[in-house]
Amino acid sequence: MIINLPTYDDFEKVSKECLIQAFNLLFKVYDNYEEYDDDIVRGEVPMDDVWEYNSGTLRTSTILLHQGIETYMKGIVAKTSPFLLLEQKRSDWPTLPDSIDKDYDTLFTIAGENLLNTFCAVCTDITPTTELVTFIEKVRQKRNKAIHGASKISSSAKALIHDILQAYTYFFGIDKWFDDLKNYNYENPLFGYFDWEFENLMSYKYLDFLKSTIGIKKFKNYISYDVTARSYFCPSCKNEIDDKYGNLQSKWAFLKPNSPDSTNVYCVNCQHENTVERKDCVHEECLGNVIDEEGVCLTCYEYQEE
Ligand SMILES: [Zn+2]
Ligand SMILES: [Zn+2]
Q1: CB atoms within 10 A of CB 27
Q2: pLDDT at residue 63, rounded to an integer
Q3: CA distance 52 to 105
Q4: Radius of gyration (C-alpha) of the chain in whole angstroms
Q5: Which of these, 56, 232, 66, lies nearest to 141 by C-alpha position?
Q6: I need a labelling partner for 123 at 20 to 30 A (CA). Which of 70, 77, 224, 230 fits?
Q7: How far is residue 232's CA from residue 164's CA, in Å, rounded to a whole number?
Q8: 3: which residues sit within 8 A by CB, 6+ positions away?
Q9: Ion ligand 2 nearby residues (CB, 5 A)
Q10: Cis ω on the peptide bond leading into residue 257 (within 30° of 0)?
Q11: Could you report the per-residue pLDDT of 256-269, keeping only the tens digit for each?
Q12: CA 273 to ligand 2 centroid distance, Å
């Protein structure tokens, strides 16, 4: 018999790991650059030079993205039957009574076109549209170029980030990449030893990363909240981060609903809501009119002294 048959859940776990790693590799390049909080360095070293230097990282990320996609497709096929993934002739399968057991992992499985066609034949979880098939084929070609080691990597960091988020959103739904990235960090056995709440809120850096690389308009495709609306400081995030170790500059809170008389802000990062008062900020140079319960303007973060 063929033993230790894999399940969809096994494949899904590995697929997500590949996509998260593909994302994190790129994020770390950006995050490392961000640590140089120095105008001279920023002026002399554009981010594009840093990406070019890290072409090996882009290559690895492309390979991981492709692996994540193939693994997801295998998982979907395994839902029908993991036997559909086997490359061997059926007459060679060790399945007859008295045949010697073989571990599934020792057998060859299908890839490339065979996998794609089988995936499309059995997939009911999502619709294998022409758009999806074209996307998968595009990633396969980029991965081939990455593997064949042509001196110039064909995919820019920006295009690669799009592709990773697009794959995650196609397969697992909108927002899932962000939830899973946060969970991935949370499950790190080292998580929380510095400061649990502070570390938890550091996910804002992923949002900053995407705003800075792919731009807020494109970013909107991968998150269910309208992040193109006017943004405000989140009092929960800013108080926590500033009180402890830093000076949060990012604004990821939005009026909910997004209307002139709205008295609520929702933070995409910590997912908390805060009640706000709508009145003009007392500071002349600030055009804000969203004041939190402590009397702080969520545009300039100044107290509203009488
Ligand atoms: Zn927040
Ligand atoms: Zn203000």
Answers
A1: 20
A2: 96
A3: 37
A4: 24
A5: 66
A6: 224
A7: 28
A8: 101, 102, 103, 104
A9: 281, 283, 286, 288, 297, 299-300
A10: yes
A11: 999 999 999 999 99
A12: 19
